[in-house]
Design brief:
Residues 74-85 have a biased composition (Acidic residues). By secondary structure, this protein is mainly α. The protein is built from four helices and no strands. It has a domain at 9-67. Helix content is 52%, strand content 0%. The longest helix has 19 residues, at 49-67.
Length: 93
């Protein structure tokens, strides 16, 4: 590429960070990098302000849905007792 100071490993490192930011799972990132050890993949999955912002936005969406009375079923936990009208758990059994 003719870029002074740029090495192949720099490109691999950048690609792994970008793959992690795109939401790649640890297992998939390990396969992409050719690693058997999770520790190497975790280096690329470091916390970022982007991740903090996505988490905060998702939490805000959940709070808004709860306030609007719209149930969120994305967690897949169908065994949880339903909340009553007051938002308090309803006794089961």
């Amino acid at each position: 590429m003719g870029l002074a100071g740029l090495h192949f490993h720099d490109l691999r490192h950048a690609g792994s960070i970008w793959a992690s930011k795109a939401g790649t799972s640890t297992k998939d990132l390990m396969a992409r990098m050719g690693h058997d050890d999770m520790r190497a993949a975790l280096i690329y999955q470091r916390a970022t302000s982007d991740a903090d912002e996505r988490i905060a936005d998702r939490l805000s969406e959940l709070v808004d849905k709860h306030r609007d009375g719209v149930a969120d079923t994305t967690d897949g936990d169908e065994d949880e007792p339903d909340d009553g009208d007051s938002g308090q758990p309803v006794p089961v059994g």
